[in-house]
Structure formats: structure tokens, C-alpha cells
Amino acid sequence: MSLNVFWFLPTHGDGRYLGSTQGARAVDHGYLQQIAQAAERLGFGGVLIPTGRSCEDSWLVAASLIPVTRSLKFLVALRPGIISPTLAARQAATLDRLSGGRALFNLVTGGNPEELAAEGLFLDHDERYEASAEFTRIWRSLLEGETVNVKGKHIRVDDARLLYPPVQQPRPPLYFGGSSDAAIDLAAEQVDMYLTWGEPPQQVKEKIAQVREKAARFGRRVRFGIRLHVIVRETTEQAWLAADDLIAHLDDATIAKAQEAFSKTDSVGQQRMAALHGGRRDRLEISPNLWAGVGLVRGGAGTALVGDGPTVAERMHEYADLGIDTFILSGYPHLEEAYRVSELLFPHLSLATSPPVTLEPQGEIVANDFILRKAAQS
Prior bond to 333 cis, omega within 30? Predict the structure, then answer.
């Protein structure tokens, strides 16, 4: 089975250690360009650009990287309740047209209530999903070329239409993740790719079964993806040491502060992430080679696959056997870890994309011994 493997643009910051300024680096346009171009050259099919007040704007970041990439796809956030569906559809069509059909969209309905209030959104959890469902129906219809008139509970549009269609037909794919019943209902009815965070395989299996069963009621089929961090090294022992090193400067006070902040969200997915480790350092391997250390201080995806290349590939294939065909990966720091994933993990996977091959890879030439080495190899 060929897998779609994406990487991540750390617009909220990057560095060598979690929860610490030690080893941190500036995330400016030059650095994001380095990561994007590396991801494209190494064979990643696209990049996820996160959203939220702690991040640079995902749409502007994607637009700025179109001219410096050729095939890389950009997964950016749609925010129902914060922008009108008509304007969002027009922006989506523009991004898709100007990128030559490289735009993907991630529907983000939830988050921290304090952050949502700062954005001007005061709906509760279930109301947000009602509004998101109305938003998405309108957004999809516009991009598919329809003229839309809707008078909904939360949104009204009159004679809405697009003058410039997207490149991808009938429209760019729509991604979405959510663990509540309302989220799964929305996914089953409207989205193309359901994303789960990296929970243990049995929990992921149960989610997939729920979405499939509900999608079948609408006569639909939904694809599945998973969002994970990854720590891959030449040996599994080295990978676990790297995992420990990633949280080496993380103190208990920082963990407690982060967990308190996460507890304020009404996101069911975030609650499930927090429950995997309970804020404790002594229960971080929650499934074979699945480590929850990232979630001690990072919201959203909080787990990482840890091991050597064959081991991590085996764990990914376990998810693929459940129906996952897209993996959105990340690692700290993101530039160096993109190369590690390519060198150590990709040889053990069948990828849907492949890096451009222009020059034969070789090590450093020592003492002008290139001809002798080539002769010995033959």
C-alpha cells in the first residue's frame, strides 16, 4: 500500500527541547522556506501548517511558499465562525489557482474557549459544530460551482457564487479531525479525509469504525489519516534516548501549567490526549513504540512513534492496516528531523510521492580516492 506522508511547518516555534528556550531558534520566512523545500526534495507529499493565536497565519505562510516550491501541497486551516463561508471559498479557490492545484484545507472548529472568545466566537461546543456544518455545506457548494442561497440557524447567504473556479475538481479536498459525536457526524456527512491524533491502534480502530458506519448512512466513503510526531534513529535504543533528551529541560511546574491550560478546552480530542499520560512522566509509552511525552506540554497531537526505521515503519503499517493512508508527521527540530525521516524511515515505506533524483548520492571523497572506490564497488 502506497502511503501519503506529509511533514509539518512549525509556525509556532521550533527547537531541540520541548518546554524550554534552550536550543530554540527563530522561525522566520527563511527557515520555513528551508523546511518546505527540504520536505519537497525528500519526498514528502505536503506540509500541514497549524493555526491558532500562537502561530503565524497559515494562509499567508502557504502563499509565501508557493513561488519557492513546485509540487509540495499546503494543508491550511478553515475556521468556521471566524470568517464567512463565501469569502473562505473565494480565498480557497485563489490559493488553489495560484498554487497550481496544491491547496488542501483543514476544517478546524474547536479550540480553547478563551482563544475563541478573543476571535469573537462565543458559541458552545455543539453550537460550533452546528455552525460548522452550515459553513461547510456552503463552502463546498460554492467551490463545486453552485449558486447558493441559505438561511440557516447560524449563517445566511443570498445569491453567493464564485467567478473563478479552483484548479482541483470538483474542489480541493477537505480534511478534518474531531473525536466528539458531533465531530464524527460532521466528518461522515461532509469531509474527504478524517484525521485522528496518534492514539493507540485499538482506539484509532474504534474511531474509524464509527466514521465509516455513519458515512455509509449518507452513501459516502471517507479516507483516513493520522497526525503523529516521530523520533527515528539508527537504533531503537538511540531513539528512546532522543525521546528522553527532548524533554530533558522540562520541569514539573511547566508540565502542570500546560496541563491546566489544556483542561480548559472543551475539545474531546484534547481530553483524550491528556488522558493517555495524565501528566505523568512514568507512563509515557502508551502502546509499543508510541510515546506520549510531547503531550506533556504541547496541545493537539501529543504522541510520537519512537524507534529505528524498520520498527517505526512496522507501527505505521499497523495503522495502515486499519485504513489509514495518510500520515502527517513532525519532529524537533523540523529541518534536521525531516532528513532523518527520509534517510532512516522512507526506505522501509512505499510512498505515494518520491523525491526528484538528479545526482547519485555519495559520501565524502577521501584523499581523491573516488575512482578507486567506484572500481571497488563494481
Answer: yes
DSSP 222-274: -EEEEEEEEEEESSHHHHHHHHHHHTTT--HHHHHHHHHHHHT---HHHHHHH
DSSP classification of residue 311: H
Q: How confident is the model over 328-377, as pLDDT tens digits?
A: 999 999 999 999 999 999 999 999 987 665 667 667 766 666 555 555 56
Distance, first Cα to last Cα, the chain: 33
Half-sphere exposure of residue 359, counting CA atoms within 13 Å on the CB side? Answer: 4
Residue keyed to cell 478546524: 108
pLDDT digits (tens, 9 = 90+) for 9-63: 999 999 999 988 999 999 999 999 999 999 999 999 999 999 988 899 999 999 9
Which letter does DSSP use for residue 319 in this model? H
Crossing angle of the two packed helices 181-190 and 201-217, in degrees rounded to 10: 50
Closest CA relative to residue 231, chosen from 220, 244, 212: 244
CB 305 within 8 A of CB 6: no
**Backbone phi, psi, residue 12, to 5°:** -100, 0
Cell numbers at 312, concatenated: 517505526
Q: Is the model's pTM score more than 0.70?
A: yes
All domains in the chain, ordered by first residue:
4-78+173-377 (3.20.20.30)
- In whole angstroms, give the CA distance from residue 376 to residue 378: 5
Distances (CA, A) of 129 to 141, 158, 187, 265: 18, 22, 11, 15
Which grid coordinates are listed for 294? 510531547
**Could you identify the residue written with the cell 465531530?**
183
Q: How far apart are CA 121 and CA 103, in angstroms?
A: 26
